[in-house]
């Protein structure tokens, strides 16, 4: 064997990868496309089996790269503003009771008085106001 020295084997591998970057990238891309479902399933299985480990890794990464993560989220919000607004509106429509209770808390309504009955009354009030607004506007 020409490379019995482990360091020589590593050096040869590094040199090969450096010389054939495009070829290896094309191979990896083709392999991923050919085995996409299997690779995604393996990743999902790993994440489910190692939730704590993955969560700890993500937390460490976010703490170490606060500016980078913040910039990414800001860019994502700017690029997807309309989609996010539509999702938020759809959520609030589907969970109107939660939205009303949150609004009551935001405006300083005491927590002890936010009962399910009161929230239901406020939801009905919101729905009535919407219907009246529809009738007024042509």
Structure description:
The chain has helices at 6-19, 21-34, 36-49, 51-64, 66-79, 81-94, 96-106, 116-136. The protein is mainly α and 138 residues long. Helix 7 (96-106) packs across helix 8.
Secondary-structure class? mainly alpha
End-to-end separation in angstroms reads: 86 Å
Strand content: under 5%
Question: Helicity level, as a percent range?
Answer: over 70%
Radius of gyration (Å) = 27 Å
Detail the poorly predicted runs: none
Shape: elongated
Order of helices and strands: HHHHHHHH
Given the structure, what is the number of helices?
Answer: 8
Total beta strands: 0
Major pleated sheet:
none
- Average predicted local confidence, pLDDT: 94
Topology:
Blueprint: H1 6-19, H2 21-34, H3 36-49, H4 51-64, H5 66-79, H6 81-94, H7 96-106, H8 116-136
Helix pairs in contact: 6-7, 7-8
What structural keywords apply?
138 residues; single chain; elongated; mainly alpha; 8 helices
Task: Give a brief outline of the structure.
Helix content is 84%, strand content 0%. It has eight helices and no strands.
């Amino acid at each position: 064997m020409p490379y019995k020295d482990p360091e020589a084997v590593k050096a040869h591998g590094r040199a090969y990868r450096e010389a054939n970057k495009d070829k290896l990238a094309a191979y990896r891309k083709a392999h991923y496309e050919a085995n996409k479902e299997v690779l995604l399933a393996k990743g999902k299985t790993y994440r489910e089996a190692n939730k704590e480990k993955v969560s700890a890794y993500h937390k460490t990464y976010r703490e170490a790269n606060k500016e980078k993560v913040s910039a990414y989220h800001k860019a994502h919000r700017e690029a997807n503003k309309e989609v996010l607004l539509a999702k938020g509106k759809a959520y609030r429509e589907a969970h109107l009771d939660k939205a009303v209770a949150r609004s009551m808390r935001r405006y300083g309504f005491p927590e002890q008085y936010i009962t399910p009955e009161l929230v239901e009354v406020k939801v009905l009030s919101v729905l009535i106001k919407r219907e009246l607004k529809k009738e007024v506007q042509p």
